[in-house]
């Protein structure tokens, strides 16, 4: 069965009263009304007969109107006539509104098939399907991304937490996510859905956005099927989701990895513009009558003006003095050497503990 106004196929629309393309009543609905009208009884047959009191009231009302109408001014008479006309006009207008029914947010049970026909979806193939097809991954893409997912997982699972940034520096592709196929297809389909809903004269303009949101998933599924891409879409969207999830976990591992080399300790309490890491080392004594301690130090971002360090000198855990050292500057990642000397006789074994770093 086809719409007599625009020619759209109305088959399978569950006996819809209106064409979902132009809003005109369907032929079956019109036929039903014509057949039903032949068997209708006069309106008076459905109305109850007036009671005895009501019949007695009519002569009184008639007499009152005859006496009252001549006394009305022209303005009052026009108002009375307008009111008499307005009442049946409202009734007729209500009947017309039923035939030109518009869908708004109050229609909770409306179906997508009542709003958009299969012919309209089919009409999008030439424009939309090539775009959707380009969003899918071919066999070469699938092989590359699958291999990279395994690389991400292997790098994250290593016990050496410093390995992810090392791997990232060697492979620039690790910093980039790949296109979200599901989002790309859904956005394209939703855009087409909004356009079709906006063209439907039965749909209130304020309802287009809510209906687009409501039917986005169903319309996307129908459109992908119309383009013959359901299998490719399933593979590509799942692969993109898995890849981007693995890439995100890998990037977190890179960000969380210690920035300083193994064997160093981070001085998180250091003051200044950067955090320092240090390591105690033995470089041999250069004096005969002093105590000496050496460290290697490294800065994450660099100390452009100076690096200062202070240590407490302790005996059996009790501080008995202090000493310090400084460097003119230290750029990011550069290893610096610092030496602390303490002169004192007869103390035996002494130890030193870092108390302060200042990077400027």
Mind sketching the topology for me?
Elements: H1 27-38, H2 43-46, H3 52-68, H4 74-99, H5 112-115, H6 118-122, H7 125-135, H8 139-157, H9 163-170, H10 181-199, H11 208-226, H12 230-256, E1 265-267, E2 271-272, E3 276-281, E4 291-299, E5 302-303, E6 307-315, E7 318-327, E8 330-331, E9 335-342, E10 351-359
Helix pairs in contact: 8-12, 9-12, 10-11
Can you characterise this structure?
This protein has 360 residues and is α+β, with helices and mostly antiparallel strands. Helices cover 48% and strands 17% of the residues. It is built from twelve helices and ten strands. It has helices spanning 27-38, 43-46, 52-68, 74-99, 112-115, 118-122, 125-135, 139-157, 163-170, 181-199, 208-226, 230-256; strands at residues 265-267, 271-272, 276-281, 291-299, 302-303, 307-315, 318-327, 330-331, 335-342, 351-359. The strands form three sheets. Strands 1-3-4-9 form a four-stranded antiparallel beta sheet, with no helix packed on it. A four-stranded mixed beta sheet has the order 2-10-6-7, with no helix packed on it. Helix 9 (163-170) crosses helix 12 and helix 10 (181-199) packs across helix 11. Mean pLDDT is 82; it is low at 33-40 and 87-100.
Oligomeric state of this protein: single chain
Number of helices: 12
Whole-angstrom Rg:
43 Å
Mean pLDDT: 82
Question: Could you state the order of secondary-structure elements as H and E?
Answer: HHHHHHHHHHHHEEEEEEEEEE
Write a brief structural summary:
The chain is 48% helix and 17% strand.
């Amino acid at each position: 069965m086809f719409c007599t106004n625009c020619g759209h196929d109305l088959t399978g629309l569950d006996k819809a009263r209106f064409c979902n393309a132009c809003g005109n009543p369907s032929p079956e609905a019109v036929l039903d009304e014509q057949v039903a009208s032949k068997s209708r009884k006069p309106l008076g047959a459905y109305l109850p007969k007036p009671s005895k009191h009501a019949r007695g009231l009519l002569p009184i009302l008639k007499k009152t109107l005859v006496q009252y109408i001549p006394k009305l001014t022209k303005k009052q008479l026009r108002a009375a006539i307008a009111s008499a006309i307005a009442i049946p006009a409202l009734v007729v207008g209500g009947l017309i509104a039923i035939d030109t029914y518009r869908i708004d947010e109050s229609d909770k049970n409306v179906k997508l098939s009542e709003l958009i026909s299969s012919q309209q979806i089919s009409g999008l193939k030439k424009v939309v399907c090539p775009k959707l097809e380009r969003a899918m991954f071919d066999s070469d893409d699938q092989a590359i991304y699958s291999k990279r997912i395994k690389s991400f997982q292997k790098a994250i699972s290593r016990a050496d937490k410093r390995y992810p940034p090392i791997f990232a520096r060697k492979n620039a592709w690790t910093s980039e996510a790949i296109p979200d196929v599901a989002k790309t297809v859904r956005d394209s389909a939703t855009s087409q859905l909004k356009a079709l809903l906006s063209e439907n004269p039965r749909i209130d303009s304020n309802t287009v956005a809510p209906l687009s949101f409501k039917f986005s998933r169903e319309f996307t599924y129908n459109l992908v099927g119309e383009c013959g891409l359901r299998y490719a879409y399933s593979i590509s969207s799942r692969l993109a989701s898995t890849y981007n999830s693995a890439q995100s976990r890998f990037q977190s591992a890179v960000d969380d990895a210690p920035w300083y080399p193994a064997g160093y300790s981070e001085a998180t309490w250091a003051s200044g513009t950067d955090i320092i890491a240090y390591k105690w080392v033995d470089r041999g004594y250069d004096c005969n009558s002093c105590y000496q301690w050496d460290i290697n130090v490294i800065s994450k971002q660099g100390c452009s003006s100076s690096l200062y360090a202070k240590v407490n000198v302790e005996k059996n855990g009790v501080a008995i003095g202090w000493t310090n050292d400084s460097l003119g500057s230290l750029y990011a990642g550069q290893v610096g050497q610092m030496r602390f000397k303490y002169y004192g006789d007869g103390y035996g074994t002494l130890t030193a503990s870092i108390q302060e770093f200042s990077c400027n």
